[in-house]
Amino acid sequence: MPITNEIVLRPRFKKELNHDHATVLKVFEETKTTNKTFKIVRVDDHIFIRLPTHKQHFWSPQLHLEINEVDQNTSMLHGLFGPNPTVWTMFMFLHFLVAGLFIAFGIWTYTNWTLSNPYGIQLGMMLLMVVIWVVLYVAGRFGRAKGKAEMHELYDFMNTTLSNNGLV
């Protein structure tokens, strides 16, 4: 599974399958009952594959598959690796909070500058927001690196499931 862009925190891929999407979804639905290594959840045309709860850690990834019907005999599988949705939501909230504070301190800095008031503290807070953003980004990259082996396990499981059922 090559990742073409090293900046991406949530790698994506897609595969064309020579079977209708109902067949592919049925295969994963059946695998859910026989497989004990991974937790599989199906919601409509979406399949979520995770490690069992006792093997998960804070940075554990999940594989989100969406199977779309192209025509009667072809379907497109879209895959997205990402952290637990709760972790992802927390990271996005923190990014938006830092961005909002950066803008607020920027406005405050500009206001003090135009009024010829001291603005060093506000400028320092803007720089602190940039540092916090970089720390959040590095933490996200660390999390992706820590979960990379598990990403490969999920990807291999998906490929094995598809190939064992003659879908690839």
Automatic annotation (TrEMBL):
Sequence intervals crossing the membrane:
86-107, 119-139
Q: Which domain of life is it from?
A: Bacteria
- Write out the entry's keywords from A to Z: Membrane, Transmembrane, Transmembrane helix
Recorded protein name is: GTP-binding protein
Organism for this UniProt entry: Gelidibacter salicanalis
- Mind giving the lineage of the organism this protein is from? Bacteria, Pseudomonadati, Bacteroidota, Flavobacteriia, Flavobacteriales
